[in-house]
Amino acid sequence: TALLVRMLHGTLEGISDARLFGGGNLCAIGDGAPGTWELIQFRDAQLVDKETYAVSHRLRGQLGTERDQVWPTGSYLVRLDGTPQQIDLKESHLGLERHYRVGPGSRPVDDPAYTHAVLAFDGIGLRPLSPVHLRLSGSPGKARTATWVRRTRVGGDLWGPMDVPLAEESERYMVRVLQAQTVLREEVVTSAEWVYDLSAQSADGVSGAFTLEVAQVSASFGPGIFARVSAVA
To answer: Which contiguous run of DSSP H or E holds residue 202?
Structure first.
């Protein structure tokens, strides 16, 4: 479904697949609050009204900013030109409030055009990406086997026959079983497979519909974004 964007400044244009996969048409979308921005790309932009474009063929969650949400009407979309750079923040400074002056780089920092903000950042660039292709095999009343494919924050654009780099100190995943938003089981495993046998199901008291969640774990960040699949016990 096309995303309708009304431009306050500038224009949008479509690009080729090659330019898209090369990083073109990179935008930030969010509600304006710090720490909530998501980076997206788009290939197609069609002018459908005055200063209004229908933006489609989008890539979400770029550069580790994936979010499990739909942005509501009224969200901001900022077209990026490649100039912004990531703040060079030491790991020991993550979560600590720091003072920032934000304004035009061509003016001194005491210019009235600058604003002052006190912000703390969690370092989501260190957050593991959610696993993909999460599947749960087996039938109700029997042991269930979950399998998934991990992604990586580093070297994920490699297209050779080998698996992508791990980019973490070790391979670990957090597995959760939930029923009606209640966590029945939480385990950390070291491979991309997990067996939910009948004894574990009985100990958890799981019955009927349940949800399985899996997230990769980073030693520096903790669990990343969870992938989910629904099933019936």
So the answer is: helix 198-204
Nearest-10 Cα torsion for 13, 18, 24, 25: 30
Q: CA 3 to CA 165: how far, in whole Å?
A: 34
Please give the C-alpha separations between residue 196 and each of 15, 53, 118, in angstroms, as whole numbers: 46, 48, 46
85, pLDDT greater than 80: no
Contact assessment for residue 67 and residue 29, using Cβ atoms and an 8 Å cutoff: no
Give the angle 61-63-64 at the CA atoms, nearest 5°. 65
Give the side-chain half-sphere CA count within 13 A for 138: 18
Instruction: Give the pTM.
Output: 0.80
Span of 43-52, 66-75, 104-113, 195-204 with lowest mean pLDDT: 66-75
Place of tokens 């696993």: 131
